[in-house]
Amino acid sequence: MQFVATEHQHRRLNPLNGQWVLVCPHRMQRPWSGQEEKPQLNEQPEFDPTNPLCPGVKRPNGIITERYDSTYVFDNDFPALLEQVPSPPASDDPLFQAAPARGNCRVMCFHPKSNLTLPTMSVMEIRAVIDEWIRQFNELSGKYAWVQIFENKGATMGCSNPHPHCQIWSCSFLPTEPQQKQERLRAYYATHDRPMLGDYMERELQRKERIVIENPDWLVVVPYWAIWPFETMLISRNNNKRINDLTDNQRHNLAVTIKQLTTKYDNLFKCSFPYSMGWHGAPTGPEHAHASSAHWTLHAIYYPPLLRSATVRKFMVGFELLAMAQRDLTPEQAAQRLRDSDGTKHYLSK
């Protein structure tokens, strides 16, 4: 009996963290009678006087949000990380270890209008978002070891406010996911004298099985080891290590790529496609300022939960929580569906 990837279960290794994912494509044939989400449609008004992220509206702490007309950044009113906090006491017990954790949390509004999302914004408006990401990164990266830019889009992904925005958390330490990548990327470079993601892009460009978008500056693929159904990775093709390495033209092409990708997502199931996304690049701060970053390649990851339709999502429970990650349709099938989804005209466009 010959192995067929789209029919037979198998495991795939994620070289970025050393973990395996179980691929079970035949599970797409099972009937679904479980929970269904409410389709996420963009039904927000342009301005909501009760929404604290709208210009001129009072936030819960009494501060008035500025009347901004492009991007707008402010310190999170309810931050997870603070700078001035005491450190936990040292412990000589290996089973009860704690360490200091300091940082800063900011909210960044993409646009003053609440009824917009990245796929419905113009390329120039997205370019303004990218420029602000880089301004924030420049300010924060000199002090903090890790600056995490991330967007949670949609209530399904825990977004508590429907206004177009992201968050920027800066940490005095290297968090778990970046630390794992740091170790794996460094080890690969020590062995091969080339960055892992550079080699990975070459293989993907040769195989052309999982490519979603390709242009001179950026490559979007469904990773061979993807966990989420329509997970994608957006990778710099110019050996950039951090987001503030980007040239003017690379920033413009990034804006074009983000609009194409998020439009494909929305068009796939004709809904405001939920996801969590974030940027990963070389660590920052005084500790890493003079360390080699040759093993790093700047990239963003998109984790969308929808599986079968606008209402049926992938749940990471049971076996996924207790044993290992598992996905249903193959990354190649997901990439084909995203390639076939229109990335130029949004389904809501007149």
Automatic annotation (TrEMBL):
CDD domains with a match to the protein in the record: GalT
Domain (Galactose-1-phosphate uridyl transferase C-terminal) ranges: 183-347
Record's keyword terms, sorted: Carbohydrate metabolism, Galactose metabolism, Metal-binding, Nucleotidyltransferase, Transferase, Zinc
Positions of the UniProt region annotated as Disordered: 31-56
Record flagged with keyword Metal-binding: yes
Coiled-coil features, chain-numbered ranges: none
Group of enzyme by EC: transferase
Annotated catalysed reactions: alpha-D-galactose 1-phosphate + UDP-alpha-D-glucose = alpha-D-glucose 1-phosphate + UDP-alpha-D-galactose
Recorded metabolic or biological pathway in which this protein acts: Carbohydrate metabolism; galactose metabolism
Superkingdom to which the source organism belongs: Eukaryota
Matches recorded under NCBIfam families: galT_1 (TIGR00209), PRK11720.1 (NF008724)
Protein name: Galactose-1-phosphate uridylyltransferase
Organism: Drosophila arizonae (Fruit fly)
Lineage: Eukaryota, Metazoa, Ecdysozoa, Arthropoda, Hexapoda
Gene expressing this chain: LOC108610818
